[in-house]
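thought: user wants a sequence for this fold. calling inverse folding tool.
action: design(structure=
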């Protein structure tokens, strides 16, 4: 008899766990509050005077260092859902005299990084296509019935029962959801801290005359800027994504979007000489990158059969989130094997 599993959150971590569990024959169902695939690998779409445009406004690119993730990268690349990105990079610092730009020399031995194609969320879309994912379903509670668990949704509906429940949410959201059913897991999630991030998306009717496509920035409000249109398959319209630093985003978390655009696009203009954008929008990620991680790839409440996975377990990166889901699935396979012996 197979154990049934529900995964709450169909981001890269939830999909990683679901894929590995399903491969070992476990029936797995995923629920995500989002209207469509993405999580923090989302894509923002907008109608602009230059046509419909898309920006990767969350995760910018990702690495593939572990062999497990590399094999997924190859399969997704063959399916057209991702490609390598080879940006020219710069490091920009604010000094007393103004901004100094250090363009990094091109280096063939630099680690290859990847992006979804034609936009970041294609990765999540492709992984979700093979799983049973229910979008637009926000879980608000979990209750026990005997040893099994029932999920309760925002609209009052219920699903279940399930033998195992996996929380694949950002730490703060996991802490809130698990507080009653598993205080220990909730406490651990409550100790991780995730920084917010203000993102600004820009479009221009002419190329910005800089030789680089991505820059790490320090000394001001921004921490990262990328020429979104330099990524493969993004089309010809010059588009950029700006990310504010965690400190600036924390301090200005309540600022109106228009004020955020003025400040961040203003700093961008100072650095690049860009003219006025044809289109600008801002997005606030309340939970962007964890800055105090739990330092183990997953959490497990053995009595309740509830797990926590996600990037906040081991590091603020797509690959870390993937590995978290995979490590948990391997652990659960071992536990199930021992039960059967
Ligand atoms: P998520 O992607 O957040 O998935 C959680 C899912 O749970 C979401 O889909 C959400 O809709 C759903 N959910 C939440 N609450 C509920 C609920 N109550 N019920 C049902 N569903 C729910 N990483 C990199 O490797 N490189 C980068 O360049 C990079 N840049 C980043 C820039 C920004 C601005 C941000 C925000 C993140 C960035 N990251 C980057 C981090 C990376 O995006 C994350 O580490 C990774 O995507 C986390 O995956 P996850 O599955 O753990 O969480």
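)
observation: tool returned 341 residues.
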């Amino acid at each position: 008899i197979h154990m049934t599993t529900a995964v709450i959150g169909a981001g890269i971590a939830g999909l990683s766990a679901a894929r590995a569990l399903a491969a070992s024959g476990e029936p797995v169902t995923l629920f995500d509050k989002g209207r469509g695939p993405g999580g923090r690998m989302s894509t923002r779409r907008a109608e602009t005077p230059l046509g419909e445009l898309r920006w990767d406004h969350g995760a910018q690119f990702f690495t593939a260092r572990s062999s497990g993730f590399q094999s997924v990268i190859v399969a997704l690349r063959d399916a057209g859902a991702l490609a390598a990105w080879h940006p020219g990079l710069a490091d920009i610092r604010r000094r007393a005299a103004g901004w100094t730009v250090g363009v990094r020399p091109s280096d063939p031995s630099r680690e290859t990084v990847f992006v979804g194609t034609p936009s970041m969320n294609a990765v999540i879309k492709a992984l979700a296509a093979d799983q049973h994912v229910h979008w637009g379903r926000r879980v608000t509670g979990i209750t026990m019935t005997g040893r099994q668990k029932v999920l309760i949704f925002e609209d009052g509906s219920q699903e279940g029962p399930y033998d195992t429940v996996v929380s694949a949410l950002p730490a703060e959201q996991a802490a809130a959801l698990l507080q009653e059913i598993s205080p220990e897991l909730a406490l651990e999630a409550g100790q991780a801290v995730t920084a917010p991030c203000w993102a600004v998306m820009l479009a221009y009717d002419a190329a910005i005359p800089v030789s680089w496509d991505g820059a790490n920035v320090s000394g001001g409000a921004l921490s990262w800027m990328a020429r979104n249109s330099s990524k493969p398959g993004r089309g010809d319209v010059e588009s950029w994504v700006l990310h504010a630093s965690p400190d600036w985003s924390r301090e200005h978390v309540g600022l109106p979007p228009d004020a955020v655009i003025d400040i961040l696009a203003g700093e961008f203009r100072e650095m690049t000489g860009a003219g006025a954008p044809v289109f600008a929008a801002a997005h606030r990620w309340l939970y962007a990158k964890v800055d105090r991680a739990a330092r183990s790839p997953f959490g497990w409440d053995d009595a309740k059969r509830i797990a926590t996975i996600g990037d906040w377990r081991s590091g603020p990166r797509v690959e870390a989130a993937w590995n978290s889901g995979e490590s948990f699935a391997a652990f659960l396979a071992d536990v199930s094997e021992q039960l059967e012996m």
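thought: summarizing for user.
answer: Here is the designed sequence. Residues 8-14, 31-34, 39-41, 58-62, 138-139, 168-170, 173, 177, 197, 199, 243, 285, 288-289, 310-311, 316-318, 321 surround flavin-adenine dinucleotide (CB under 6 Å).
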